[in-house]
Amino acid sequence: MNRLNYIIKRILQIIPVLLVVSILIFLMLRFIPGDPARLVLGEKATNAEVAAMHEKLGLNKSLLEQYWIYLKGILTLNLGDSLKYQRPVIDLLRERTGVTLLLTLVSTLFSLIVSFPLGYFAGMHKDRLGDHVIRTTALAAIAMPSFWVGLLLMIVFGLWFRVLPVGGWGATLPDQLKCLILPGITQSLMTSALLIRNIRNSVVEINLLDYVDFARSKGIPEGEVKNNHILRNAMISTVTLLSMRMAYMLGGSVIIETVFSLPGIGALTTEAIFSRDYSLVQTLVFLFALLVLIINLLTDILYSFLDPRVEF
Amino acid sequence: MKKKITGKIALILAACSIVGLSGCSGQSASSGAAAGSSSAATEYEDTVNIGLAGDPAYLDPDQSSIGPTEATVMQQIYQGLVTTSADSTSIEPDLATDWKISDDGLTYTFNLKPGTKFSDGTPVKPEDWVWSLTRARDCDTSEYRFIAEEIKDVKADEKTVTITLKYQWAPFLADLCNFNMVVGCKAYYDKVGGTEYAQKPLGTGPYMLKEWVKGSSLTLVKNPNYAEFGYPKTSTLKFTVIPDDNTRLMQLQSGQLDVVGDVPYSQVDTIQKDQNLKVQTFKSTQIRYLILNTTKKPLDNLKVRQAILYATNKQEIANLVATKYGQPVASVLSESQGKWFNSDLKVINYDPEKAKELLKEAGFPNGVTLTISVSSGSQVYQQIATLLKSEWEKAGITVNIELLEKAALSNKFQSLQHQATVLQWVDDIMDPSEVSGWIADYDQSHAWYTGLKDQALDDLNAQASKEMDETKRVTMYKEIQQKISDNSNVIPLFRNDFVYATSNKIQNLEVSPFSVMRLKDIQKTK
Amino acid sequence: MFKSKIKERRLTKRPAWLRNLSFLTGAVIVLFAVVVALFPQLFTSHDPLEVNALAVLQGPSGAHLFGTDNYGRDVFSRVVWGTRIDLLLGVLGTVIPFVVGCILGLLSGYFSGVLDNILMRVIDILMAFPFIVLVIAIMTVLGQGMINVYIALWVVGWISYAKLVRGDVLVLKNAEYIQAVKIAGFKNSRILLRHLLPNVINAAVVFATSDIVLNMLTGASLSFIGLGIQPPTPEWGAIMNEGRGYINIAWWITLFPGLVMAVTGIGFSLLGDGLADFLRTKGR
Predict the structure, then answer these.
(1) How many structural domains are present in chain A?
(2) For the Solute-binding protein family domain, which residue ranges apply (chain B) (predicted)?
(3) Which of A60, A232, B277, C270 has its CA 20 to 30 A from that of C214?
């Protein structure tokens, strides 16, 4: 099978996954205690009013019927209105998805910029001073909760030095990017650390592997060994890890956006879950799933380029 | 009559600061000079930046679950017939000049100020009044339509608005001050439709909405057609949405914001130490209550509930949760409601031994075990529950704390599945009928989720809401407070002030006891 | 065999004690944490739950090493008692997913075919949810509580191992020496256990040590969102979160549990590194 077929096959594989995902989301939501009609009507609502609201929201229909409406909504982008905001869900997505994507992108960029040189350096200088410093710092970075780090960063850069805004969101792109620096650093910290560890360990491990020795013994110049073999192989596990981390960071936006008051879909998701805003939750979680699947797809495609030995 | 854990909603303007370091006392330039500017003629900034705890869902007074954020913004945009006075002791004209009440107490006639216009220049028409007030009563999305449910009929001409009531209703004028009893433009609604109406409000108030970056900020600018000359004092208000209390405060400290509410009490010292900032406190009607479900054993036993009363150290809870801004209370009604408040009720001193005795009398010599279910969203509730646990255990009451997220918790107490919980209340109007009805009128909330049926109390409450003689009415409400206290099903713990932190340059911030900012006077010196 | 000669040269390049330094430091930290978790009463005389209105928000002192919190509780003893809960959270939350994930990853990577296909679809479905979002969703359905936190971590945790191991197996099974033993007619079980497992387990072990830390962090994050463990249980994340509102005036409440968590995390990671080194030398 050639690569193009592989890619097409992977895209086709996504469809059943999305279908199952949508069923899972739908069912999970129905198992959460708390009646959305009562929440939106307030505590004084009579049973008749609640029943009327159920009808209006379609909650009195059978589960199968409700699911079909949900599925149809996703396919036709007719996602219904948010219960809390009384506006089309699609409008809310349009306003907020960009923030979260940008945050994830900035965080990924930060981690890549930091981790590749440091990880490679540490791996090639195993057990020397630089390695120890880099590793210990990375270890510490892994073990700190993101909301804790975010708080400290806000205090240091927002309050003491006053060089960056303390949370919030700008109106223009430069302002917005400025607002993303601290959240981006906070978000990327653990990813950078994990990547550094992974790149370093891969480099060290591959340095010890037989085929590198073999290549050396065949008299291939040291530089070429490093570039072609070491780096390339280090990339494979790194790409796997990075794609997992990107998905993780996408979800981490739930926390980061809360700490830094960013108007993204992460903060909106918890808000929607807590207010039992069914139509909003089921769309948001589905969107998260879709984004993650796209990341995974791209990873797999990248994978096939990096390591031709992977079986299609 | 409504209000759950998130309670805090709103009435209208008014309320002067009672403490406030420098501002808020007057509007003269001299107070401005005192606040820090040394130049002769005080110059003011065009924009004041205000922190908002959440993004408003919409700006339509007749939508569901309106919270403090929606109310705060809407109060700058909309106006009603009457409003609460600045010291929140009386009711003042707003778009009406004066009014007349018929002898039977059923017909209210309001004379209108001439020439009132919406911010786009359209004059307010009689049909707008009829449409707005009827909509407040009938709009099925409005969670606050109970405020208007006494209205039978609204008629209006160019000069007057006449409202007929279904029955005598003493708090009617107070109800008219609520944020949903305002005038909107019918023609505009018909033109743009409900969805856009809720996104682009059109009112007669001091400000109008200029820009709304969803989830992030709202910019309000001066309404050129606002009736009161010279107001509002500041031409632009920028509300920035920062849900996290800490982040909001840090933005104030870094100068990104000028005004921040809901300041965590623990942070007050830090702000006071900051030379650029000041702390302002405002009288509030915010009280936290312990709710005991009397349909669950052993809380069906009055002696057990009394034991809990003695085992609860209200002073300690007030001090630890709200520091010097909290005070233990004995009545369910806030002292800030003035004449209605029953000052004869006294806070019972913490006495775990007496509590043990009462438990023994109730037939529980070995103590009891209770579960307190509280909301996980706010630290205040967890704090109160943690304190109750440690206090009660000294009196032989073993406590499990159950943390539930808000929706799951409301589900639980609405169906009376809980044993004990902690909730709060903030009045919306200047009248005792709201909180009293919520507890005494069984049909409203099963006696605030305590499941206690007290017919005498229920009747007294119904009578009090229709009594037109104010002296008699005051006596009735004092008795209601006494009765609720005797029942010990809803135990008020403490009342706290609203604490705001502002830049030193901010003058004339006013916050009502109902948690709404009045912003037409606010100014920031350069 | 010149291969092993090269390896020997490289391994003997640094002294033994240095080679084991990571492992030793990590082991000491983790061992200490375990002792604290088992016998917290040896390290503090204060009751972690005792409220004292007279000693609220006191800075670190001789009497209160880490100061007191907003209830006047001794932060040090809360952190000490919290060790038990957080270690359990980290270890129990990791061990089960580790074992399950490694086995599944190994099998599906090696045999490919139907098993691999099914597994990958299940993984695809679970992986499609971002970690935190899925954990939050599960916690909302189940409600708060320690057991539910475990369940949420288990449901999600094994995927990383399965994916990591499978990815490595896919690459390794085509490596010359594996092909060689295959051709030599070795049994699958032998190839899996003796040749593949030792080579792929390293990455999983390294990841597991971070995963322990990750699980502790997830517990803390759940507290942050308001879906964590029931109060007043002294859990590090909960303590940090409780101190969040006081960070400007009582930094000690938030800072110390964070630092302790970081040190414990470093301990586990060092242990993992040492272990990986050890496995690498022994594996061949």
Answers:
(1) 2
(2) 91-439
(3) A232
**Smallest CA–CA distance from A193 into chain C, residue:** C210
Task: Tell me, yes or no, if A109 comes closer than 8 A to chain B by beta carbon.
Answer: no
Q: Which residues contact A70 (CB under 8 A, 6 or more apart)?
A: A22, A26, A282
CB contact under 8 A, A197 and C210: yes
The reply to whether residue A42 touches residue B199, judged by beta carbons under 8 angstroms, is no
Nearest residue of A to residue B243, measured between CA atoms: A261
Would the CB atoms of A143 and C134 count as touching at under 8 Å?
A: no
* Per-residue pLDDT tens over the stretch C208-231: 887 888 888 888 888 877 777 777
Q: Looking at the structure, do residues A55 and A114 belong to the same domain, yes or no?
A: no
Q: How far apart are CA B18 and CA B512, in angstroms?
A: 11
- The answer to whether the Cβ–Cβ distance between A84 and B57 falls below 8 Å is yes
Helix ranges (DSSP H) in chain A: 3-31, 36-41, 47-57, 63-76, 89-124, 129-142, 146-153, 173-208, 210-217, 222-224, 232-260, 265-274, 278-306
Whether the per-residue pLDDT at A257 is higher than 70: the answer is yes
Tell whether A169 and A278 lie within a shared domain: yes
Q: Looking up tokens 């983790």, which residue turns up?
A: C30
Contact C244 A28 (CB under 8 A): no
Q: Which residues of C touch B382 (CB under 8 A)?
A: 231, 242
- Subunits with 3+ Cβ pairs within 8 Å of C are A, B
CB-CB: which of B379, B390, B408 is closest to C143?
B408
CA angle, residues A164, A170, A175, in degrees to nearest 5:
60
| Interface predicted TM-score (ipTM) over 0.90 | no
CA distance C67 to B363: 42
For residues A233 and A276, membership in a common domain is answered with yes
Among A50, A76, A102, residue at a domain's last position: A76
Split into its structural domains, chain B has a count of 1
Q: What is the largest CA-CA distance in chain A?
A: 85
Alpha-carbon gap, residue A189 to B243, rounded angstroms:
24
Domain termination residue (choose one: A34, A52, A76): A76
Q: Which domain holds residue A120?
A: 92-306
Both A11 and A157 in a single domain?
Answer: no
Q: Which residues on B lie below 8 Å from C245 (Cβ)?
A: 245-246, 264, 266-267, 379
For residue range B279-299, list pLDDT tens digits in order.
999 999 999 999 999 999 899
Amino acid at B56: P
Q: Which of residues 2-41 of C touch A (CB under 8 A)?
A: 2-3, 6-7, 10, 14, 18-19
pTM value is 0.79
Q: C34: which 2 tokens?
A: 């375990």
> Domain of B314?
287-496
CB contact under 8 A, A31 and C141: yes
Q: Looking at the domain assignment, is residue B249 inside a domain?
A: no
Contact A254, A112 (CB under 8 A): no
Q: Is C163 on the interface with A (CB under 8 A)?
A: yes
In a domain, B489, yes or no: yes
Domain C25-45+60-282 in this protein, CATH class? mainly alpha
pLDDT band per the 50, 70, 90 thresholds, residue C120: confident
